[in-house]
């Protein structure tokens, strides 16, 4: 992890560019169509690189035992404010650290989750490690930009190909999982969605 990157993200959260907002339909639909039917009530969920916690807090409000991990303390402070809000009553565990370190240490501890959500974050070296964080029958929910996003001229999203998926890359990487949902957007923005289960 580069300290510059971490600082850059702290500044983006300080500027209000990435504030707390409503969860994406992808997450709400995944909750209804896959988490509720397939997981035991109250299962543990991880929102990796989950930023200011808009997904983690909403998922906690739906009854999942959420952990939010990110390397931006500024983002996590926003999540903390929201998670202690009396109105929402959502409680989430918050963990500050680089995704690589966090994932490696939890794998060593054999920590597992009912589901792992990764939304708009991609470090290629982490991809093959994520299934190790899944409990049996656990679900991986992944949504992020593909390399197509650059060609389509979408001003949003990373420019560095190291943080952009190739078409079909998640299908290849997670071929040992049961793929339940897969979609690639090729108009206006290049975004991939995957929901897969540890068989
Ligand atoms: C585009 S934001 C996405 C936030 C959230 N998942 C969402 O969907 O809104 C990317 C997030 O990844 C975090 N991040 C970037 N690199 C990271 C790293 N190496 N380790 C942990 N978090 C990282 C940033 O702090 C930021 O919160």
What is the topology?
Layout lengths: L2 H12 L10 H14 L5 E5 L5 H8 L3 E6 L2 H11 L8 E5 L2 H10 L4 E7 L14 E12 L2 H4 L17 H5 L4 E8 L5 E7 L2
Parallel strand pairs: 1-2, 1-4, 2-3, 4-5
Antiparallel strand pairs: 5-7, 6-7
S-adenosylmethionine binds next to helix 1.
What multimeric state do the chains show? single chain
| CATH H-tier superfamily | Vaccinia Virus protein VP39
Which CATH C-level class is it?
Alpha Beta
Q: Spell the H/E element sequence.
A: HHEHEHEHEEHHEE
Q: Strands of the largest sheet, in order across it?
A: 3-2-1-4-5-7-6
Any guess at the CATH architecture?
A: 3-Layer(aba) Sandwich
- Which hetero ligands occur in this complex? S-adenosylmethionine
In total, how many domains does the architecture comprise?
1
CATH topology: Rossmann fold
Strands, count? 7
- Measured between the Cα atoms of the first and last residue, the distance is 32 Å
Estimated structural class? alpha/beta
Structure description:
The chain is an alpha/beta fold and 199 residues long. It has a single domain (42-144, 158-197), classed as Vaccinia Virus protein VP39 (Rossmann fold, 3-Layer(aba) Sandwich), CATH 3.40.50.150. The protein is built from seven helices and seven strands; from the N terminus they run ααβαβαβαββααββ. The chain has helices at residues 3-14, 25-38, 54-61, 73-83, 99-108, 148-151, 169-173, and strands at residues 44-48, 65-70, 92-96, 113-119, 134-145, 178-185, 191-197. A hairpin with a 5-residue loop joins strand 6 (178-185) and strand 7 (191-197). The chain is globular, with a radius of gyration of 16 Å. The structure holds S-adenosylmethionine.
